[in-house]
Amino acid sequence: MNITKEKKDDINVLKIEGRLDTTNYSDLEDLLVRLTENNEINILLDLSALEYISSSGLRILLKYLKVIKAAEGRFMLCAMTTDIREIFEISGFVNIFEIFEDQATALKS
Amino acid sequence: MWPLKSLSLKITFSILFAVLLIFTAILLYNYHISRDLLLKNVESNVKNLAYGKALRIEKLLEASAKIPENMSFILESSDYSKEELQELLELIVANNEEIFGSCIAYEPFAFDPDSMFFAPYVFRSAEGVSFKYLNAESLNYFEWDWYRLPRESKQACWTEPYFDEGGGDVLMCTYSVPFFANKQDKEIKGVVTIDISLEWLKDYVESIKVYEKGYAFLISGQGSVITHPVEDLSTNQNIFQVAEERGYDVLARAAEDMVRGGSDFIPYDSPLVSGKTWLYYTPLKATGWSLAIILPEKEFTADLYKLNRDLFLIGIAGFIILFLIVIIISRKITKPLTVLAVAAREIGGGNFEAMLPESKSKDEIGALNASIRSMQRELKTYIRNLRETTAAKEKIESELQIARDIQQSIIPHIFPPFPENDSVELFATLNPARDVGGDLYDFFFVDEKHMCFTVGDVSGKGVPASLFMAITRTLLRARLSVNMKASEIMTAMNNELCLENENAMFVTLFLGILNVETGHISYCNAGHNYPFIIKDNGNVVELKGTHGTPLGAMPDIDYGISEVFLDHRDSIMIFTDGISEAIDVNENQYTEKRIIDQLSKMQDSNPEAITKGILTDLDGFVGEADQFDDITMLVIKWLDTAKG
Questions:
Q1: What DSSP assignment string belongs to B65-124?
Q2: CATH superfamily of the A2-108 domain
Q3: Hey, which of B207, B285, B327, B640 has its CA 20 to 30 A from B310?
Q4: Which of A52, A54, A55, A75 is the mutation pick for testing B, counting most B CBs within 10 A?
């Protein structure tokens, strides 16, 4: 997995590439910990290059959704592939996350 | 390299090999240089010797030669009577020991117009000094070299040595000086001669001793051997003839140079001396003769050989001493190494208390000793730490094993579980990726007609997941009561699991309640992947529909419910994504499609066969790749007892 960070306005855009699973979810967690501790609480995850997400990965997304919501920030997802979207649909997570078609739409909202 | 096992032997042999090379080089260099020097020295010595001897011979001959030269002036200046001439000759012979005879030979009719021959000759004989006239009867002297040569060249000259038979019976040489009737016209009047016995010359040349076996010989300007230690050769043999007989080119070339008046020092093979010899020759200018000296190389190089032999012996002795010294020193150096090696081997074998030799030296051995000491200390510490860590790890492992047993024990694992019930066949499997896992399955009868069954997957793996799984399963059993709907229990469990859930742990759960008499299933799916229904005809149907987020993710969710009817011999298979998302070594997923393909081949099979069929195919697919998620499967086959 590879994560690239980019700041657009006051939103941190994280692009996640590859597989997000048990072996590497802590990398994403570490990054999210740093951002939230620095009060960088507007985060957009670009999932266009995410190949697979395990339940551990989903847990991290859920955890920081809660943390950021509590801090009154925004935690958004965008550009999901069909496979990833299916996982979100099956798990019902589509209903609790803010999910956008692409980065532009997300940043505009 | 040599198969030498000992370092000291390696050092010894290396050093000695180098020394041997150096020593050999010195010996060879010394031999060649000293041989060259010696040869130069010998050449210079023999040159001086030959020069001295030649000078001496020439002096003697020149002294004798003065006599006829003076006589020629006397005979040119005035005429003498027969008696006066005889008296003159007798005086010359009597007073000059080296002169064997003397003659005044006139041109035909020059002395006496009536006489063709006139040559008074005085010579030594047994009776003392004798006198005679040489004439046609005794000797036609006009034909002889001693008369003919000076007459033709009008110059004084030495004849070739010849054996004077009838005269003195000795080997002699004649020096002839012409005298003239008219000096301006060079009109020859006659020749005055002296004969020199070469016996004394022979003795003199033979007295030239060069080393033990060296010798000298004298040849004339024509190449005739004048004197030679071998008697046969000195009887008028010619050196060219000798060279030809021997077929010896070196001698032939040397002989040519000799008669030309050359001088040289050359390697030469003498028949008289065994071994290599050298030849030196130098001219006697006045006579055109050449003095040759033979030097045996063996003799003049004897000192050189002795020197080299001594050097060699000294070298050998030094070599042996050096050998012993090097052996002793290298043994001394390597002995502590040997001791260290033994100690190191002992340490390697596990004896960390092995005694190391005391070493106070600050050289490399001392440093090595210190290093091994430090290594021993570090190893001790390391092994102690390792033991502690291993003990701790073993403890954790044994605790995990216990946890695994406990986890396994809280899910039913006796099959068939309901042998008395004819309408349900059931099989399930749970295979954690680690010791303990976050998957769960369960099934139990709520009342006589209704069987509750569930499969869940906790986010993450390992101990945290297993604890969450245990909580989930306990909550389910504790909260479920008769007549409770699947959605109600899900909503209740979700709210409980959301309490104090800071880590956002959640569990996807499929919960179904089967009416075993009708095949009716009411179910609620909290974010779990869709189960499959395997129809009796082999069709595989995905049981779609999600009724909310996984349990623990979000509180206050109102879960919905769905229902489905199983037909006779239909099976339902609920599983976790550990199967569909299992990957092979190339990270290809097993996929749900492959599950469907497998299931459609097994519509006739019982749940155990279906489960094992999927597991076997999965094993084959995954191959060497590690299992990274828990694998759980629950298969229930409903049999309509009314039809059965």
A1: HHHHHHHHHHHHHS---HHHHHHHHHHHHHH-TTEEEEEEEEPTTTS-TT-S---EEEEE
A2: STAS domain (3.30.750.24)
A3: B327
A4: A55
